[in-house]
Specification:
Blueprint lengths: L7 E5 L14 H11 L3 E6 L2 H15 L3 E5 L8 H16 L4 E4 L15 H29 L2 E5 L2 H5 L5 H21 L5 E7 L4 H9 L1 H7 L11 H12 L11 E4 L8
Parallel strand pairs: 1-2, 1-4, 2-3, 4-5, 5-6, 6-7
Length: 266
Amino acid sequence: MGFLQGKTAIITGAGRAVLSDGRCGSIGYGIATAYAKEGANLVITGRNVQKLQDAKEELERLYGIEVLTVAADVNAKADNKAVVAEVVRQTMEKFGRIDVLINNAQASASGVTLADHTTEQFDLAIYSGLYAAFYYMQACYPHLVETKGAVINFASGAGLFGNFGQCAYAAAKEGIRGLTRVAATEWAKDGVNVNIICPLAWTAQLEGFANQYPEAFKANVKMPPAGHYGDAELEIGRVCVQLASPDFKYMTGETITLEGGMGQRP
């Protein structure tokens, strides 16, 4: 157990997913595992109730922490402010504090070109990613001020580099980066640091992308110089742990690429 013992982290999109070979296939669940090993109590959200329950059972059994699951889906047809407010209400009712907010959830129609994208597909990415981050940050802000907490938002190389067939996904992720930098400026005085991670890990979502849109996958996804795709817990989740530590409080508004050497920029 580490410095997060007794603290509470909200992680969106943290249901337990598995790859075709049985390994962990979810960045959100990898982050949840890293946080659980440090003693944090967790609030995990997502659209798939069974995946949330599977995550809760395993995390509580293996690490002796408490996990609150809340089914939450930010989308174009929902009262999204109310959806997120309910997550925060249940969090405060059960744990009484919020120390870390991790906006990891994101859905998209990756593989569809800009010319062929529908409004519904664009909305899917913008609502599940950008709007979700906006509502969660607003709702958690007063509680993060109380704990001098941290926000970790997830963006992508798709936005940094303009990946083929990922217009809505890239737009959502770059919107999240802009939102993060503004929050970092506005919230620094409150002791709340806000940073961005752009990951590259082999996930069930990426595996599905490869199977459904092989041409777009081949155009976008390359083996990084490190020679392997990131491990969701050890190479993504552990960095998320460190970003919530006292050692990183002075770093805010930064974009951190965890892509094994693929994320280099001038």
